[in-house]
Every structure is written in C-alpha cells, then in structure tokens.
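Entry 12.
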Amino acid sequence: MRCSRTEMMVVAASRLLEDGRTVLTGTGMPVLASLLARETRAPRLSIIFEAGSISPLRPPALPLSVGDSMTAYRAVMAASMDYVMCLAQAGYADYAFLGAAQIDPYGNLNTTVIGPYERPRVRLPGSGGANDFGSLSWRTIVLMRQDRSRFVERLDFLTTPGYLTGRGARERAGLPRGTGPWRVVTQLGIYGFGEDGRMELLRVYPGVTLEEVRGSSSFEIRAGQVEEEPEPTARELRTLRRLDPHGMVTGRG
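Predicted 3D structure (tokens):
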C-alpha cells in the first residue's frame, strides 16, 4: 500500500509511544498518532488531552480541538486543565506531543510570533499548555513539518524550552532533571539529541536523501549512522485511514 509523506510521518510518530505509558496530546497529527499507537501496538496507552479528558476510547470522529466533546468519549475521567498540568508537574507525563512554527538546534520551540514581538509579521496561537508540557514531561516529541523557515538557527521567540543553550541549561533554569525534548518527527525523518543537547538525524524515510534533509534546514544537520525508517505496514495504513477516513489530518480525500 502506497502512503503519503504525511501518513509516513504519523505512523513514525506512533511507533515511538510505548504500551502502558501516558501521553499528553493535542489535536491533529498528535492525537491521530496516539490513537494509531493504541490500536496497533500500545493498547494500554493512556491519552490525556490538555483540556482535561483522560484516556477516552476511540472517539466516533477525530476531535477538532483539545476541548472538543469527542475527547471525552467514554473517558476514564473528564477533569480540568489545571488537573492535567498538575499530573505533568507530579511526574505522570511520560510523553508530550508538541507542534511548532519554529525549532532551533537545541529543540527550543516558537509558537508565538514570526518577526519582532512588538510588530510581528505573523502572530501565532501562543503557548497554550505547550510550555508546561515541554517543561515538565519526561520525553517531549515534536511533530512538525521541516523547511528552512521552520528549522532555524535562532527563534523569533522562545515559547517552549528545549535544551536552551545545551545539556544542563534546563536544570540551571530550574526545570526538572531528566526532562526535555527526545524526538523530532518531520515529513523527512526522525531526529534525536546528542550529548550536548543538539539535534541530530537518526532516521530518514524511504526515498528521502540526506541532501534533501540538509537542504530543508537553516542550521547544520548532524548525521552519524542514519538508518531508514521501515515503510508502514498494511495494518498500520488501514488503521490510520479508518481513524481519519476523510483525510482531515493526512490530507487524503
């Protein structure tokens, strides 16, 4: 079965989630990847939405926002945003899924403005719960498209901390030890972070070259022994398309 790069991206993200863990998720690709993981390889994955719904069953339709009633479909608990933030602060968030408009080499994220803060070219939604999730979750997974305007050497605004200026900087800023960005998933491949806290390429998708990856970033892409991510299985693609039958997230009509 052939798949698009967006479908490959969602499948690759879903494979990162382990069974029996908790994931703080937003809508769109993060919730689709979380639901796909739970239906294919992590049946005991607990999905937590920012607005307060905890571990719902598969909703009849994909939620349009973190506060959509679909997020509470037969959920274990319909709590509140402050309760979810308390869970993260208490150390119960194994993973957090975040998106971003910009990311820098140390996994710091911008979802606030493009351009000067006082007179921006584009004003973005802002942090929401992203700063809390990225500050407090044990492993943060960033799910975003990659191009030279998004992979930047310097952010226009720091919304959510990654490794700040390198390993150890989070702890010096007062954030919990052992937390931070873990993986970045794009339409080209998957990144991790080296011992100094700088992003490095781990895997590319079938048909993607290292030259294409490097040409889609404004900062140098580190790459050691890069592996190829396996193509989606027939089961993964069938399940993905059943969860998103109209291509609301993946773009399939």
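Annotation: Residues 114 and 122 are 5 Å apart (CA to CA). The chain has one domain: 5-243.
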